[in-house]
């Protein structure tokens, strides 16, 4: 009976954990064979008993589980390690609890009837807990929120997730003689491990809100840029008579060269303020702003744009795509001093691309994300990730290539006709 009980509890544990992990991590393999192998390996890990006074059992189980996560899932190292700690907190706590009870039943510490009843109650408790657990983790799993986590946030999550494991490890090394205290600490460990999921959810929401605030601030800045341009235009128009008077004076004095120079300067100022790349006000503001930023660094942005005055797209996401792409190109400081931008409307699609040369080596993570070359990595290196998320929210697809020291970001977004 003891062996059967251990196998049943291990199966319940493995089955539910194997269902929960893919809600948070990306499987490396999709074949049926790999699915069977993955489930079997997790079942073996859960079968491995965590025995009081034998710390090796716990450490070996933890090490094997970490290897299991890294073999079968392909997210960033920080994320994989964090979820290794989170899920093993549940596995370790339940394994220790079931091992302790199974040991008592096998030693016939209870009368035969009570021992059988204890075994049944333990199975019922496991089924009840994991039934609630399955509903619970589905409610808090959100890949978009988890995508907002930085490396530092994943490291913090890992440290917090180790707390239940430390409790169980302490119980393994030095189990208290007070049985009530031992059970209370074990259940407390299970509770903490379970509460890690809403904690992750709230951390993700906070990170996402921070990103949204940054995007909204960027939008506000570009609208302010539009307003500032309009004010300058109104100011020039207001002073137009004064300008004409100056030109007339130069002509009256026969100083034609000065009059021509003055006209050229005035024309340049009007041209800079009223340059229209497209009929879309927001896009014009962004392109003018980035063109001015590039010119201060001796760079030129070659712009080819042809879109309608109003696009049925989220303006904050559109702003994120265009502004961040150009910021990245400007910060790359192309050796030929040129950046090429294309923004074209092709029937029901918006085609966008930014191309520039680069000199520094581009570093990438295992998941394909880019590593910033800036010292302040906490506040930088998010541009590409934000662009990808913005394109995904708009229902588009993005492609980034780095061939022959030419960086090209291409996005294609489907436009929906307004009803």
UniProtKB/TrEMBL annotation:
Single GO molecular function: identical protein binding
Lineage, opening ranks: Bacteria, Pseudomonadati, Spirochaetota, Spirochaetia, Spirochaetales
Pfam families linked to this entry: HATPase_c_5 (PF14501), SPOB_a (PF14689)
SUPFAM superfamilies (UniProt xref): ATPase domain of HSP90 chaperone/DNA topoisomerase II/histidine kinase, Sporulation response regulatory protein Spo0B
Annotated TM spans: 43-71, 83-102, 114-132, 153-173, 179-201
Domain Histidine kinase/HSP90-like ATPase per the UniProt entry, residue ranges: 313-415
Domain of life: Bacteria
Protein name per the record: GHKL domain-containing protein
Keywords: Kinase, Membrane, Phosphoprotein, Transferase, Transmembrane, Transmembrane helix
């Amino acid at each position: 009976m003891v062996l059967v009980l251990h196998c049943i509890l291990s199966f319940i544990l493995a089955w539910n954990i194997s269902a929960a992990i893919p809600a948070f991590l990306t499987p490396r393999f999709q074949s049926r064979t790999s699915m069977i192998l993955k489930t079997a390996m997790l079942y073996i890990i859960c079968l491995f008993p965590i025995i009081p006074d034998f710390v090796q059992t716990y450490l070996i189980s933890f090490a094997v589980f970490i290897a299991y996560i890294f073999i079968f899932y392909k997210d960033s190292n920080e994320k994989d390690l964090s979820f290794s700690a989170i899920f093993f907190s549940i596995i370790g706590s339940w394994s220790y609890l079931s091992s302790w009870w199974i040991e008592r039943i096998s030693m016939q510490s209870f009368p035969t009837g009570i021992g059988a009843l204890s075994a049944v109650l333990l199975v019922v408790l496991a089924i009840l807990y994991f039934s609630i657990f399955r509903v619970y983790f589905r409610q808090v799993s959100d890949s978009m929120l988890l995508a907002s986590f930085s490396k530092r946030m994943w490291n913090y999550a890992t440290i917090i997730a180790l707390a239940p494991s430390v409790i169980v490890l302490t119980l393994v090394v030095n189990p208290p003689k007070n049985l009530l205290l031992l059970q209370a600490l074990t259940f407390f460990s299970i509770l903490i491990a379970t509460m890690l999921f809403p904690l992750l959810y709230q951390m993700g929401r906070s990170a996402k809100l921070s990103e949204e605030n940054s995007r909204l601030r960027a939008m506000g800045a570009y609208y302010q840029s539009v307003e500032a341009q309009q004010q300058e235009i109104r100011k020039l128009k207001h002073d137009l008579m004064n300008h004409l008077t100056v030109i007339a004076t130069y002509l009256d004095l026969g100083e034609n060269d000065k009059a021509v120079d003055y006209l050229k300067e005035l024309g340049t100022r009007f041209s800079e303020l009223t340059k229209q790349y497209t009929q879309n006000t927001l896009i014009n503001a962004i392109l003018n702003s980035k063109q001015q930023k590039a010119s201060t660094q001796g760079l030129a942005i070659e712009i080819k744009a042809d879109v309608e005055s109003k696009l049925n797209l989220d303006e904050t996401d559109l702003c994120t795509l265009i502004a961040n792409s150009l910021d990245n190109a400007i910060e790359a400081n192309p050796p030929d001093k040129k950046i090429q931008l294309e923004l074209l409307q092709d029937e029901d699609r918006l085609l966008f691309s930014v191309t520039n040369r680069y000199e520094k080596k581009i570093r990438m993570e295992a998941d394909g994300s880019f590593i910033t070359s800036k010292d302040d990595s906490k506040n930088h290196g998010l541009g590409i990730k934000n662009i990808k998320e913005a394109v995904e929210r708009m229902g588009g697809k993005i492609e980034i290539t780095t061939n022959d020291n030419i960086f090209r970001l291409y996005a294609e977004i489907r436009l929906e006709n307004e009803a």
